[in-house]
Fold Mechanosensitive ion channel.
Amino acid sequence: MQFINNLLLDMELDPRIVEYLSIIIKVLLIGLICIVANFISKKIVIRVITRVVTNSKVKWGKIILDRQVFRKLSHIVPAIIIYSFSSIFPNYQSIIEKLAIAYIIIVGLVFIQSLLNAMNDIYQTFEISKVKPIKGYIQVVNIIIMILGSILVISNLIGKSPLILLSGFGALSAVLMLVFKDSLLGLVAGIQLTGNDMVRVGDWIEMPKYGADGDVIDISLNTVQVQNFDKTITMIPSYALISDSFINWRGMQSSGGRRIKRSLYVDTSSITFCTEEMIEKFIKVQYLSDYIIQKEREITEYNAKNQVNRDNPVNGRALTNIGVFRAYISNYLKNHDGIHQNMTLMVRQLAHSEHGLPIEIYAFTNSVQWDVYETVQSDIFDHLFAVAPEFGLRVFQNPSGADLRNRVEESNNNALLGERSY
């Protein structure tokens, strides 16, 4: 730099012009050095690092490259060069050094943030990330680093110690708690959610208050993202999962079975004792033959032991079509390929209502997939609706307009026939 000054002075120019030209040339030279250094760091050094990482067997190397960790760190080189040459501008040295240091701190913050995000991406490649997500903690660390970095930048620019700013930090704590209220609540909620293993990425949760019914796709510091089954995204505050109730279907998914709990309503007027003809018919049914033989033996022995007069069907014990139907359903389910045989399987009769007598099926499918579950459930009830009349039973249904119209037409036809006969 002294050589440039001497060269300009030898040209016998005005000292003021020499001074300005010297500054301009020095700035241009420093800028050229920064450009060359930046070119070398990005086009040569980073390319070499990229090639080494790409060719290596380290799985997480590509994640670091995608996050551009090294590229963001390379921005620190021009700032270091400018800081190193600040002494050639004595009048502006202090300002240049402060700006260079501030830029170095900002680049360092960006680098640390990218590195932390890369660490989170690397962590998500492991299965434990679904059970113990750390994204919320990463975000908290980012906030703390950004606050500390901002304090360092401000203290550097004003030329004061960071401790002076930190000493006044307590006075701002109330304001900061108000500003970062959601983040603080989210941090506490994230610790509880993770520590108690309440929610994982991939869990199916249901939270009607927020209109959420789908799979958890992301757990962050402030929100939990749920992709509903209609492909919409619902954002739930993290602390809401602690303060409010929700359903997590993980237990069902991990059990290997999904519950069927549905009733078939039988018209009570169709319930009757089994006749000999009905018993002969039922004994030929595959799922009823053993049951009918066993029950007939038990009933015969009981009636003979108690000398029951069976001339009146009210006396003693007898089979009913509804009882045989329940036995048929139970045996049908026990031989169904879609029903989980190691879980609860029950066919029960619920309390009678104005809609008839409910026969409830309580069982579990051997698949938790939604489409398979619905198919199995539909196939079972398709069969039961079709087979109920074979037992002399009618499935209850409120009369429709067509039923009333047919009844009126039948009545009118009967009336016409009566008039003609008269």
Observations:
- Residues 277-318 form one domain.
- DSSP finds 18 helices and eight strands in the chain.
- The beta strands are 204-207, 212-219, 223-228, 233-237, 247-248, 258-266, 346-349, 357-365.
- The chain has a mean pLDDT of 81.
